[in-house]
Amino acid sequence: GEDNLEYVKKQIAYPLSVYDRIPPTPGDNIDWNPSCGLRRYDELDFVGTQNGAIIDLEGITGQEYYHDLVERAANHIRSGQPRFTDGTLVRLRPVCHTLWADDLYMGLAFMTRYGASRKDADMIKDAVRQVDCFNRYLWNPATKLYCHGYYEGRGQAGCHWGRCNGWIMKATCELLDVLDPSGEDFARILSYLIRQIDGLKAYQCNDGMWRQVIDDAGSYEETSCTVMFAGAIAHAVNKGWIGKKYAPMALKAWEKVKKSYIVNGRVQNVCVGTSLKDDENYYLGRPVSGNDAH
Question: Model-level pTM?
Answer without folding.
Answer: 0.92
